Amino acid sequence: MTTTIEVGMLGLGTVGSGVVERLSRAAVKIEQTQGLRFHLATVAVNHLNAPRTVSLPLGTQLTDSIDAVVTDPQIQLVIEVMGTLTTAKRAITTALKHGKSVVTANKDLIATAGETLVRLAQREGCDLFYEASVAGGIPILRTLTDSYATDTVQSVAGIINGTANYVLSAMTRTGQTYEQALRAAQRAGYAEADPTNDVGGLDATYKLIILSRFAFGQSLTVEQVRPVGITAVTTSQCQLAATSGWQLKLLAQAQRHGNQLYCRVAPVAVGDGRALSRVNGVQNGVAISSQAIGESLYTGPGAGSTATANSVLNDVIAAGQRLRLGTRGPAFNRNAGQLGVKRFDQLPQAYLLFTTLPSAVMADYANEAHFSLKPLSRGSYQTSTLSPVQLAQLQATRAITAIPIADSVAWEPVSVAPLPIRTNIAI
Ligand SMILES: NC(=O)C1=CN([C@@H]2O[C@H](COP(=O)(O)OP(=O)(O)OC[C@H]3O[C@@H](n4cnc5c(N)ncnc54)[C@H](OP(=O)(O)O)[C@@H]3O)[C@@H](O)[C@H]2O)C=CC1
Ligand SMILES: N[C@@H](CC=O)C(=O)O
Predict the structure, then answer these.
(1) Reduced to 3 states, what is the DSSP secondary structure of residue 90?
(2) Which residues neighbour 40 within 8 Å (Cβ) at sequence distance 6 or greater?
(3) With a threshold of 0.90, does the pTM exceed it?
(4) How far is the CA of 191 from the centre of ligand 2 (A)?
(5) CATH 3.30.300.30 applies to domain 3-138+305-325
(6) What are the residue boundaries of the Homoserine dehydrogenase catalytic domain, all occurrences included (predicted)?
């Protein structure tokens, strides 16, 4: 017997159009395999007369009133794919208070107000799912919930912003400028309406915050992560690094060490031997290290209409099944931990350096401060382990860009001599 679920949707842009298209394409399969039929009753948009890439099914209402969706007593399930913070929070809150289950792809909102919304959903006995909020088409949240249920995660290292990875890959592989590559990512529908968070590392930080709740039961804040984006990375740096066996990636990391969780979102040099170095373009990759499974890598498209819509619809089906069975309420994530939070940049580690300073000056630095410097190609170097103080002093020259090398952290303190302070060296 088939159960019909009345659905309302907020947003009909890149992801919303994908949801409409996938929902009609997969309707027969969903009915056959799940015993569910989803009837898209109403879709709310901002601009009623804007051109659309999909046609709505016959009978689906298009409105510019969010309330017409979230307060409609017929609607049982609301899909929020419009983005925004305040408007989306108000809409989801109203939907939950009206007893509706909610599926959202909104990482900004789930990272910053997710805990409040989860509590509200629990109080109202509704479901709140958000698989598409992290890594687009990769079912990483459900995998962490279901497949790591008995396991203990030690570390998560992810390329989790499709736009930034597309840009860095294009700069490395085709020599495009940052601006050219970003424009292409925008045209492909990977970037947010305003791409500032994509390239500034905030989008990856929001996703790391959500991932960390599932992997460690630990909530992070943007202030704790202090993300560094890719806006200062140049095509020349990407290509010099690649020549020497490193790929520059915007990496989001969280790693348990004792009772601390170390985190970072920053451009990092990933060695060619590591699987993450081969995750290119809009692809995302999440490498998980855990006690029972060991090392695993989950890859797939991190953004884009169809792949993201697929994740949204998997949540819709999960919520639909609970509506059918009357089992709504259990939170998507119930992992809870109590770790202190630190940043990777508080630890000694090795770096790739890019500079226009003469090699003799760089050699003097290394000699005076007792660290070693391996020259790579044209103004690039690989350092031995540097303490945070040494790094700060080195960067005070303002003529050196330092990119941390993945997996080079020294967990035990190392004794390193401080550098003499030299600022504003003439080049
Ligand atoms: N694009 C992607 O690859 C991914 C996106 N996401 C997330 O999914 C969400 C949607 O992204 P995306 O589809 O790319 O965004 P788009 O900008 O393409 O679409 C946003 C849609 O929301 C509608 N909208 C915006 N504000 C309002 C409002 N106040 N009232 C009613 N409708 C509104 C817009 O209406 P109108 O068309 O009339 O302007 C538009 O249809 C975001 O949270 C994003 O972060 C998550 C994973 C991947
Ligand atoms: N803008 C985001 C879209 C998916 O979350 C990205 O580029 O990863």
Answers:
(1) helix
(2) 7, 8, 9, 20, 23, 56, 57, 60
(3) yes
(4) 6
(5) no
(6) 139-317
